[in-house]
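Exercise 7. Predict the structure of Exodeoxyribonuclease III from Aquifex aeolicus.
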Amino acid sequence: MIKVATYNVNSIRARRELLFRWLEREPVDVLCLQELKQEEENFPYGDFEALGYRCAVFSQKAYNGVCICSKLPLEEVRKGFGDEFFDRQRRLISARTGDLWFINVYAPHGDLRGTEKFRYKLAFYERLLSYLKENHSPRERICMLGDFNVALEDRDVFDPELLRDTIGTMKEEREAFRRILDWGFRDAFRYLYPDRIQFTWWDYIGGMIWKNKGMRIDYILVTEPLKDKVRDVYVDLWPRRRRSPKPSDHAPLVGVFEL
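Solution. The predicted structure, encoded as tokens:
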């Protein structure tokens, strides 16, 4: 049995104390973080090593950044797409342990329809799809997880009418994300819990976490050979329901696998 987690920390420097307090409570085997906002050379490798992790990091100053920290041996670490244009923003890292691939994704937030950031988000999804086709097969055991910045269905937001056609719910975004799933992935949470309402992100403004007015934009996706190994997928609200240390606006999403 292993535990994997995805967590947008919204600055590892700002969330360092909270993150390591959480890891003491929830000692996952593989941890994928997004939005590190810190250069690779300043990443807290030593703190992770003290807990038994080795970390592969692809990050930059002030923006973006992803890592995979694992208690399992990591092989074939791949940083980015191998594409100069898309790798200017550090949004993708993958690694293999045995015959199991982990792909950590931090998709762009995007913006209003027709803007440059909106177009970039859709282009990112197209590049991600081509990356999968070029480097992997749906027959492989792959766990792709991260912050995808899309609420796939209306039930993945607290108020579908209020949020209709806003960032993260637009038809074009959902279709782009759906093409990734159609390549060969299952949404592990929805596979286990087809009717459960659960969010992973809540705005800081208005105390939304206490009202549970959020969105489900963080996912653990698995290929068919891995889907029947999933035993649980849950959101750990402890790190989000904090006043001090100040939390990220996301909560960790944890998957339990019997391998």
